[in-house]
Amino acid sequence: MRPVGSKYLLEEPLGRGATGTVWRARQRETAGAEAAVAGQPGETVAIKVLKEELASDPDIVMRFLRERSVLLRLTHPNIVRVRDLVVEGDLLALVMDLVDGPDLHRYLRENGTFSPVAASLLTAQVADALAASHADGVVHRDLKPANVLLRQYDGQMYPMLTDFGIARLADSPGLTRTHEFVGTPAYVAPESAEGRPQTSAVDVYGAGILLYELVTGRPPFSGATALEVLHQHLSAEPRRPSTVPDPLWTVMERCLRKNPDERPSAENLARALRVVAEGVGVHANPAQIAAAEGVAALLAPDPAPAPVPDVPGAPDANSATQVLPPNTAQAAYDPNAATSFLPHTAGPQGAADPTTVLPSTGAADPTTVMPPMPQGRPGQYDPQGPYGQNQQNPQNPDQPHPWQTQLRAARDRNEQTQVQYLDPNEDPLRRRPQRQAARPQHQPQQPRQQQPQQRPAPRRSTPQPEQYSPPPQPQRYAPEPQRPAREPRPPRQRSANPMKIPGLGCLKGCLFTIVILVVASWLIWELTPLHTWVGQGKGYWDQISDWAGSVSDWVKNLNSSSGGN
Ligand SMILES: Nc1ncnc2c1ncn2[C@@H]1O[C@H](COP(=O)(O)OP(=O)(O)OP(=O)(O)O)[C@@H](O)[C@H]1O
């Protein structure tokens, strides 16, 4: 690592999740060669500052340093790019591209559900991102609408998957143990909930839930408590919504299989969803309809799914329940809560005794989901205890522990710099912003009926009229025009029709014109003597000249009668 803290200026919080707070920040100087993206002074970026609990955990710091290269090399048009990783004092932060657009959770809440075609095409792009990361051996493990940002470009919206590697970073023995999972209850795959080995198939399960939620507005499994939701993932079958066409349901149902080996690979999922989108629109031709009806054949599983690596140094599975506070399983459950660290519902302790396994900071409280870390807990960093600062490696008392060496090196290189703030009284790291609390430049939410053009295509139970051809991916990292420092951020705009329907406006105009012409013709026919003339077989000019003759006769008569007087 190298001194990068002074390169960025935190400006305002964009949102807060379980693992940290995301800030809008500005680049002050060009970053060094170690960063994946050097950036330009004045450029705006997003910085996720990891929570103190994470930053002070030596396992996580080690993992942060070790996974740096993985996070930095993960590039795809549908993945939010990590530009740099910052280690400074007790600060751990990821510098990312700033995505100008809402996250999918917020978008769904504000604009309602997607049509089957639009949902298929959006999820296909998410599946593209997953396929690329799985090919690189990286499993996301926390797919959910809040982790999909909608980037606006050229009047269209592109889903951008974010928080890659965060679940992996957080999956430390200090925070989770072998029979806990990292994830969001509504989106957790059965094998994760149960503590079985996980593979990239957990992301495909998450994509299935996402697809379901996009079309129906809610995930397939819900419950009053997180534990109830987990049990449903394990044993309940998803119910088919009436609005989902057959081919799309085939895809959803395969993604939501309990057995991970029966789920399609992310690559096949993306391909299948595009076939479905083509085949369920009203403009589909017979070949496209037939292809969509046969989509099951495209959903082959991944022959070699990417495994989720074991957590190194995790203590014995049986020890976990000894440190978790009891009796929190009935806490109110918010399906859209932030990522949680919850124990599994099965395994050595099983689901039979749910009240003894959930930490008190369960999913009911998205801002405090980290379980408390009791003294002496395995993997916990204790400055006074073993492996803490000024402590020695127990294997070799003359040598510092390996994590100390790495961390010290990183901090030494950062020593000469400091994170700079706009105003010392406004130290953003000391503030405790609420999720989405401050977006000063954001326009106030307008009533829905005032901006109907911003809604996605309404949900319908019949095949959709949209004929969507996947938009060409923009040149993702083309340099953007620089904004001067402190320039107010332009208001975010949502596209009225993210999946554009070519010619729709023209069609509406034509129909309107035809209606006007028909009504005008009818009025002329009814209100003028036209039909009489037509009945008498008289031409238009004949009738006009008759009228003109009558008028001139009348004028002559008038003149002659006044002359006689
Ligand atoms: N790269 C980015 N550009 C712009 N906004 C971002 C970016 N990353 C995150 N945000 C915003 O910050 C919010 C919080 O992000 P964060 O990842 O911490 O939330 P989360 O996904 O709900 O949390 P978690 O997954 O840790 O529970 C997001 O919902 C989004 O609005």
Q: What is the end-to-end distance?
A: 117 Å
Helix content range: 25-40%
**Shape category:** elongated
CATH architecture of one domain: Orthogonal Bundle
Q: What ligands does this structure carry?
A: adenosine-5'-triphosphate
Strand percentage: 5-15%
The number of helices is: 17
Mean model confidence by pLDDT: 69
Q: In what order do the strands lie side by side in the largest sheet?
A: 4-5-3-2-1-10
Keywords: ATP-binding, Kinase, Nucleotide-binding, Serine/threonine-protein kinase, Transferase
InterPro entries: Kinase-like_dom_sf, NEK_Ser/Thr_kinase, Prot_kinase_dom, Ser/Thr_kinase_AS
Organism: Streptomyces seoulensis
GO molecular function, one term: ATP binding
Describe what this molecule looks like in 3D.
The protein is α+β, with helices and mostly antiparallel strands and 565 residues long. The model is unreliable at 172-180, 311-338, 340-486 and 491-500 (pLDDT under 50). A six-stranded mixed β-sheet has the order 4-5-3-2-1-10. Strands 6-7 form a two-stranded antiparallel ribbon. It has helices spanning 52-55, 58-66, 68-73, 104-111, 116-135, 166-170, 190-194, 201-216, 226-235, 246-255, 266-280, 286-293, 320-323, 402-414, 504-527, 530-536, 540-564, and strands at residues 8-16, 20-27, 44-50, 82-88, 91-97, 148-153, 156-161, 180-183, 340-343, 420-421. Helix 5 (116-135) runs antiparallel to helix 11 and helix 10 (246-255) packs antiparallel against helix 11 (266-280). The chain is elongated. Among the domains are: 2-29 and 43-97, 2-Layer Sandwich (Phosphorylase Kinase, domain 1); 104-298, Transferase(Phosphotransferase) domain 1 (Transferase(Phosphotransferase), domain 1, Orthogonal Bundle). It is built from 17 helices and ten strands. Strand 6 (148-153) and strand 7 form a beta hairpin. The longest helix is centred in the last third of the chain and has 25 residues, at 540-564. The protein binds adenosine-5'-triphosphate. Its EC number is 2.7.11.1. This is non-specific serine/threonine protein kinase. Residues 376-402, 435-467 have a biased composition (Low complexity). Residues 8-276 form the Protein kinase domain. Residues 338-498 are annotated as: Disordered.
